[in-house]
Structure formats: structure tokens, C-alpha cells
Amino acid sequence: MEDLFPKSAEQLERPAISSSWYNRARTLYTASDKEALNAQPYYFTPEICVKINDIGAARNRLDKLYKMMEVDEIAALMREQGPPVPEKMENSRYLYSIKIVLAEDLRPMDNNGLSDPYVVLEVDGKTVARTRTVYETLNPRWDQVFDISLDDGAVEVLAMVNDEDVLGADEDCGGAWFKLSPKYFDDYQTHEVWLTLDTQGKLLLRISMEGEKDDIQFWFGKAFRSLKRTEDDMARTIVEKV
After folding, report:
1. What confidence category does residue 131 fall into, taking pLDDT thresholds of 50, 70 and 90?
2. Are 85 and 77 contacting, i.e. CB atoms less than 8 angstroms apart?
3. Does 201 lie in the same domain as 124?
4. pTM higher than 0.85 for the full model?
């Protein structure tokens, strides 16, 4: 993300100012019209291309290692003949993968009849995830994935859609609650969850769960997902900039 969104010298000199707030304010006050907002060029460095290629190479090596070690056969043999696979921790913990996909028909918060929405996930009043801001839309698409590790109890999660403001505090654009619990996601499949916001509009999440165990398949799978997610995020951001 630092490569794709490099900080300017002015931003580095202003550590107390939010980078998104400062960039938004500077863009609005220096651009004369909408065309000027979209006309700023972006120069891709060779290092970015090398890094995204390195991710692809790492995935290929991991796949070869998976086959060379015969991971599926080892895991099946351990389940049949070995002792029970121990939990990673004394208390069972589960890894939830939450993809914040999109929202539809959000409440307009700005004078132009649009909003600058981003999503925040909160657990027990603490922020555990925040998407990027999508400017000037009522139907934003984020496609961002966050991993949250929780114990085996049911947890209430608040999904808040906020409107980013250049001046003043960000405004509440709508919110909804949902539950994370092993009993809801124990099939380990991806569930599409549509949340109806308390103001207007809907928010789409894709949620899956995996138990954190000291199991060879689990750790290979986690490495695969991490690499794939990073590659997808970089590719999506590059396409958006193009």
C-alpha cells in the first residue's frame, strides 16, 4: 500500500493530519473542475511490478512445496492413525475472514447528492477493520478482506458506513449488527450476508470461518490466502489507477 499510495513530502511534514483528509482537501481546493480531479497521472515504478511478480512466484513455489510434501496424504494419515490434532491455543480460537464487498442505495450525505463512504467494523466498541474511502457514490464497491481471530463464543459486530468529510467530523451513513459464532459458520463455507442499514441501503459481506489448529493443511491454506489476497488487492488498485 505504501508503494501504491506514496506519501508526499508535505504529508510527511504533517504527521498529525490524516492522509486521506489532507489529500481530499488539497485536491478539492486546487482542482478547478471534475476533469482536473481525474486527470492526475500515476507513474508505476519497476519495483511495484517486481513485487507483484514476486507474489506470483511465491504462490507457485508454495504450490510445488505442497505437492512435494504430499500434504493431503500426510494430513489424512495423521487423522486416521495419529493423535487428535491439537488446538493452536488452550482455548479454541477461530479465524473469521470477512470480505466487505459493496453497498447499495446509501443515504446521500453531501450537497451534491452523493457520499464518500467507508466501512468500519467494531467489536466491543473497538475498531477491528476499516476500508478505504470510495468517493462520490451511493453504490460503492470495496472488495476488501479482513481476518479477525476470536474465541468460540458468539460475538456481536457492528458494521458502520461513514461518510468522510473534508472539514469537520465524519458522518454516520448507516449501521447494522451481525453475529460471528462457530455455530453459524461451522460448515467452513463462504456465506453471503446482506445487512439492512438502519438509515437506508444495504451492505454485502462474505464471511467464512476456519479453526486455528496446528495442522499442516491449515497453515498452507493460510499462506495461500495471504498471498492471493495481496496479489488481488495490488492488481485491483493498479487497474483502478489505470
Report:
1. very high
2. no
3. yes
4. no
Instruction: Give me the amino acid identity at 221.
Output: G
Residues of the domain holding 191: 93-212
Gyration radius (Cα) of the chain, Å: 21
Q: How many CA atoms lie within 13 A of 110 on its CB side?
A: 17
Residues 127 and 203 in one domain: yes
In a domain, 108, yes or no: yes
Phi and psi, residue 89, nearest 5°: -125, 165
Which residue, 70, 56, 69, is CA-closest to 234?
A: 56
The three three-digit cell numbers of residue 123, written as one number: 467489536
pLDDT tens digit sequence for 182-203:
888 877 777 889 999 999 999 9
User: Distance from first CA to last CA of the chain, Å, rounded?
Assistant: 16
Q: Are 101 and 141 in contact (CB under 8 A)?
A: yes
Do 21 and 108 lie in one domain? The reply is no
C-alpha–C-alpha distance, residues 136 and 58, integer Å = 37
For 199-220, how does the pLDDT look when each residue is reduced to its tens digit (9 = 90+)? 999 999 999 887 666 678 878 8
Indicate whether 133 pLDDT > 60: yes
Within-domain flag for 65: no
Q: 128 and 156 in contact (C-beta within 8 Å)?
A: no
Distance CA 97, CA 103 (A): 18
On whether residue 167 sits in a domain, the answer given is: yes
- Cα–Cα distances (Å) from 239 to 13, 42, 242, in that order, read 30, 11, 5
